[in-house]
Amino acid sequence: MATYVTQGFYGSTIEGVIPQGWIDASTLREVPDHQEIYLSPKTLTSQIIEINQRVDTADALAFHTPSSSSTTPTADDIDRSAVLYHLHDLCDDTDTLNVTNPPQPVTLPNLPQARAYRGVVALTSPRKQRRGDVGQSVGGAVAGSSAEGSLTSTTSCYYLLVRLEEQETDVLVFVNVPREEFENVGDARGLAEEEKLAEGLVSGLVEKLRIVDWGLFA
């Protein structure tokens, strides 16, 4: 069973959790200032935290599918659409995004004023056309290919989006589980355990994520 430990992000201005023993990618290579990346020492799974400009209503609604032509989008509709905006922003033009679990609202005990959503998507790419090296995946972490064949790469992405309206900021956390290392050896149990770890990590962030220093957003 996975163990999650408290971890400070962005100079400890944000506090959350990571799986015990995971590696700070910044000790291995350069990481963009708006990201923090942690890598599993045993698999290709990774955890990425991003601080992004809050998606405005007009951009979010480009991903909104109304139930009827007369329906006025609610705040919840806009937030769910903002989730899709961020997820599509991770993709290249040739990628395919399939929603596994639609974004669901969650309450963050340490950030009750924030609107937050969690869910799961599968991101599939032409393996040789993924930006960067073959070992590169969404958000800049490590990836692999799926059992669909050597021409594609599929990653399960477990995510949490936290919308901080007053700070005009969207905090996005996603946990990437590349499937190749498990599917290529027929290890369905290993893949299930890795995806359970990812789901538990998002749950841990829902419970523990907090802003230590709001000056980060000044």
From TrEMBL:
Gene3D superfamilies: Mog1/PsbP, alpha/beta/alpha sandwich
MF terms (GO), sorted A to Z: guanyl-nucleotide exchange factor activity; small GTPase binding
Region Disordered, residue ranges: 128-150
A GO biological-process term: protein import into nucleus
GO cellular component: nucleus
Keywords from the named record: Protein transport, Transport
InterPro entries xref list: Mog1, Mog1/PsbP_a/b/a-sand
Family, per entry: Belongs to the MOG1 family.
UniProt protein name: Putative Ran-interacting protein Mog1
Organism: Aspergillus steynii IBT 23096
Source organism phylogeny: Eukaryota, Fungi, Dikarya, Ascomycota, Pezizomycotina
